[in-house]
Amino acid sequence: MRTDIGNALGGEPALTRDALDELDADVAAAHERIAAGMADDEFGYAALNLPETADPERIRAAVEPFADSEAVLTVGIGGSALGAATLSNALASDIDAYYLDNVDPEHTTRLLDSLDLSRTAVNVVSNSGTTAETLSNFLVVREAMESAGVDWTERTFVTTGPEGNLRNLATKHDLPALDVPAGVPGRFSVLSTVGLAVAAIQGHDIDAVLAGAAAERERLAGSLYDSPAYAYGATTYALAQRGALTNAFMPYAESLETFAEWFAQLWAESLGKDGQGQTPARALGATDQHSQLQLYRAGPRDKLVTLVRPTERADRDIPETDLEGLSYLGGESLGTLLDAEFEATEASLTAADCPNVRLEIDRVDERGLGELLFGMEAACVCYGELADLSTFTQPAVEWGKKAARGLLGGGEFEEAEAVRGKDRLVVE
Ligand SMILES: O=P(O)(O)OC[C@H]1O[C@H](O)[C@H](O)[C@@H](O)[C@@H]1O
């Protein structure tokens, strides 16, 4: 992974060389903390050890019974779905991957009606084993399998922590079970059983994903000048301090669209606390040049734009044409055009003094994805250390989970009851 920072903000370099050197001293301290956490496999920091500690053999062995599937359906939400979806949506496979994360009944019904459940592997993923959306969706899927005459116990495996309803279910029905490694929060779990099982079923090279991540891990050092991951984490933090409170994450590759979703969870849930954080916005190049870019370039000066691209891709020529005004396109390729759009957006942002960061990998393949995934995780942890945040907790999300359970009668939650309907304006 390469990080290339366009360091303008409102006409001046946002980060002078002196400011960067000062920041670098803080990065050295942050790295010391991170390295100590990794050495002790502390909660959260343990995720940065996954390139070494994940066991691809074990993952492949666990999913082997499902190799004959024509599709794999993951039931999970948040960090229990987005990592796997990032990989499966980035890489082509003959085995289709589907995700049930939301509990939208129309979507669930439509999806289940479209699948041949007798040829589908079902992967139920929940670290806690208690998440209402996941367990509800699982019960619905199980019923659909039974109705279709499919023995659900033959086609289901779970990925979960040591305790909880899902673990009990796996034990009761003797389902194959993969363990969520200890100390790895959901949004940092893509390089574990949670993110890699689907990729393994789809025949992707999960060793290469881990090798890409390991290469980026090797480059974590006490200086932002030596580590593309820390360079990204430290400069996004410093730019946020200077007012760039939104980070528009804009890959120039259709295959990385879900990556932006995964990034949004990582950034929002890890860093959005104590009145701090940087709002992740999801965009896609070149499509969103024709919609969101107007705001990024000319709207409030509270943003940075992260442009992401592979430097190599399978290309496709644009046919020659004698259509008037279009001859400049003939003989070019779609890839050349996309690259020109990328460079033009970068120039456009720089010309308007909008900070922008370029992240590049060689290719959208297993290795490149491993680099980018690990790079963003390490960047996020670095940002969290610099901002003195508890990167690996999500109290605001827990509040909502408890409230939903309380409102459904699954437990008391007076705080939610107390504010229901408070200070609202209803217009009918
Ligand atoms: O894996 P689970 O325990 O089901 O949790 C799924 C998701 O639940 C919550 O929303 C957490 O904030 C997420 O970080 C987590 O990924």
Automatic annotation (TrEMBL):
- Keyword Cytoplasm carried by entry: yes
Pathway note: Carbohydrate biosynthesis; gluconeogenesis; Carbohydrate degradation; glycolysis; D-glyceraldehyde 3-phosphate and glycerone phosphate from D-glucose: step 2/4
Q: Predominant location of this chain? A: cytoplasm
Report the GO terms under cellular component. cytosol
Task: Give the UniProt subcellular location, in the record's own words.
Answer: Cytoplasm
Q: Which GO terms describe its biological process?
A: gluconeogenesis; glucose 6-phosphate metabolic process; glycolytic process
Q: Matching PANTHER family, A to Z?
A: GLUCOSE-6-PHOSPHATE ISOMERASE
> Could you identify this protein by its name?
Probable glucose-6-phosphate isomerase
- What organism is this sequence from? Halolamina pelagica
